[in-house]
Amino acid sequence: MTEQRFKIFGALIAITGTPGAWHAWYFGAEGKRRPADFIVSHDVAEHELCDYLADLFHEHATPRNSTAARLP
What is the pTM of this model? Predict the structure, then answer.
């Protein structure tokens, strides 16, 4: 199982699992994570996750938080 972390328009999101069985998580300010309220489609490949999340949350973009990026 892999974990990738993203900063999507200011929100910290982790995706765990494998293609076809993704699980999404939100990170809180205190570092704890909770299940996200969205589902990552089973047909999204690992290299497509950032673009998928950006498409999903594009309405949350603001001039101050206008980027979607994978975190190291």
Answer: 0.91
Provide the CB-side half-sphere exposure for 21 (13 A, CA): 4
Please enumerate, as own/partner, the contacts of 54-57 that have beta carbons within 8 Å and a separation of 24 or more: 54/8, 54/9, 57/8, 57/9, 57/11
pLDDT tens-place values along the chain, 72 residues long: 789 999 999 999 999 999 999 999 998 878 799 999 999 999 999 999 999 999 999 999 999 999 999 999
For residues 33-42, one letter each, b for 16 or more C-beta atoms within 10 angstroms of the residue's C-beta and e for the rest, the string is eeebeeebee
> What is the Cα–Cα distance from 14 to 61, expressed in whole angstroms?
18
Alpha helical stretches, state H, the chain: 49-56
